[in-house]
Amino acid sequence: MIDTHAHLDACEGTPGEVMARARGAGVRRVLTIGTGIEGGHTAIAIAGAFDDVYAVVGIHPHQAGVDAGQLHRVQELRELLAQPRVVALGEIGLDYFRDYAPHNRQQQLFDEQLALAAELGLPVVIHARSADADTAMRLVSHPGTVILHCFSSPGLLELALERGFYVSFAGNLTYPAAADLREAAARVPADRLLAETDCPYLSPQRVRGKKNEPAFVLHTLCTLAEVRGEREDELAARIEANAAVAFGLPPLGPPPLAPLPLPAPSP
Q: Considering the entire predicted model, what is its pTM?
């Protein structure tokens, strides 16, 4: 299994401790996210310390505010994106729910990063919240690989299906009120499905109240398998294969044949 979106620098414990627990749960690779230039340096350093961690680097829409100082730093991403363990540009996009930055500045930042990803031939990891129309308008013509991270916008599903985007589900898929997300998960083609934790946020229902971490991606996998009527071990192998294609990861050996055990809630 793979966790395609984690913030290892914000988890409980050191990255080494977090990764040890992930491996014990059967998680074989993790993508750690660097939000902003400084966060990108941190993510790259973490990825460089582990054979099973890769980095995704980009400027988050929250950082487009006047005082955040990130809007004019897009070109600084070039050096970070050239590092060997960086596999995508993200998370980038639009967030009108939190509204921490003016919409026009978010849009400018998003447009510039999409253009940079297209120039460099890198996948983009998309953050979209309460901004379906403006997000869709930009992604409909984007020429590269698109990953809809922490999918929570059913209004973007038809575009994703039409354009062949990857759709990644996080722990909120497991919440009792998230029937619309489970319906969406059942419709995503098998070769476009991904899973993530977005840790330390969005702990799955069984461990809700605990700080999320990569080991807990198995809980989301369990729900995905249930709503799709598939075996967990087979679905885990398929998600690993999908992630390898989406992010250009090197191949792994065969996954374990036995069903993956769910990690127990933290004490």
A: 0.94
